[in-house]
Write a structure and sequence with these properties.
about 40% helix; seven-stranded mixed sheet; 9 helices; alpha/beta; about 280 residues
Length: about 280
């Protein structure tokens, strides 16, 4: 009886050893297979980070960006075909600008791997960079021929201003959030758009000394379009703005010699226009 007990204990010990070595072998095989798998375009640590909620200081140097320029260029071309042309944007000037402007340079480091996805991204200070399709659509709705002087209300990251500068003769842009405006100036200078006029302040009053403008674009939503902006729109000029509270519509206003013509376009969702616009809206 004693002999059989010892034999059983030995068998259990041997079984435990076998189980341990078998588990270790399986783990090694899994690690080996993962190391041999196809390379992912972006580090897993970035993919799992809170990419939609960067800190206010997240706009950093691009030296650590894992993507190569050729990769970013390829992603940009795919973005235009998949998310912009396929959804009806046809203006060749707009498409060319969207193919050229390096959107990843205007996106926080935490969100770089999503730079060419078709959705908005947080850029800090409760602001966002609009999705590529909306940037392209709003630019197309301005009906630009390349000779215009354009006013943008809400510089944000500077991306929309860069797209406009690829098409227009002059671009003026106002940003109410001072650190964001300073970062946009830095990014625009670094990416070669150093002739864009940037002002840090409330965009409600527009830029009277540079008026009239042949095109005006708002990248934040007021409840009502500020009258000073309408007053600064040249005859034949077009203003495009998201208008509304939670439910917003993209509004296109054209000034004719007889007055203003207004059309409602698609439903959108933008951050609210702050400053005097909020007080004016009650």
């Amino acid at each position: 009886m004693i002999h059989s007990i010892h034999t059983k204990a030995a068998k259990q010990k041997d079984f435990g050893k076998s189980t341990f070595f078998c588990s270790a072998f399986i783990a090694l095989v899994v690690i080996f297979l993962l190391s041999c798998s196809e390379d992912k375009p972006y580090p897993l640590s970035q993919a799992n980070s809170q990419v939609h909620m960067p800190t206010d200081s997240a706009m950093e140097s691009t030296s650590a960006v894992p993507q190569t320029e050729s990769r970013c260029s390829a992603d940009r071309q795919r973005m235009v075909v998949r998310d912009i042309e396929a959804r009806g944007v046809k203006d060749s000037k707009v498409l060319a600008a969207m193919r050229k402007v390096p959107r990843h340079e205007f996106v926080p480091m935490a969100n770089r791997f999503e730079a060419y996805a078709d959705h908005p991204l947080a850029i800090g200070y409760n602001q966002t960079i609009s999705q590529p399709f909306i940037v392209a659509l709003m630019t197309e709705l301005l009906d630009l021929d390349g000779t215009e002087k354009v006013l943008e209300i809400g510089t944000g990251s500077g991306y929309q201003a860069a797209v406009l500068r690829e098409i227009c003769a002059q671009v003026y842009s106002i940003e109410i959030v001072e650190p964001l405006g300073k970062q946009a100036i830095e990014t625009l200078n670094r990416t070669g758009y150093d002739d864009i006029h940037i002002r840090i302040g409330d965009g409600y009053e527009g830029w009277p000394e540079a008026a009239p403008f042949q095109a005006i674009i708002l990248t934040a939503a007021p409840l009502n379009i500020p009258k000073p902006l309408l007053d600064q729109l040249d005859i034949g000029g077009v203003l495009v703005a998201p208008v509304g509270d939670y439910f917003q519509n993209l509004i296109v206003v054209k000034r004719t010699k007889d007055g203003l013509e207004q059309k409602k376009h698609i439903g959108v969702r933008f951050v609210p226009m702050t400053g005097k616009a909020q007080k004016d809206d009650g």
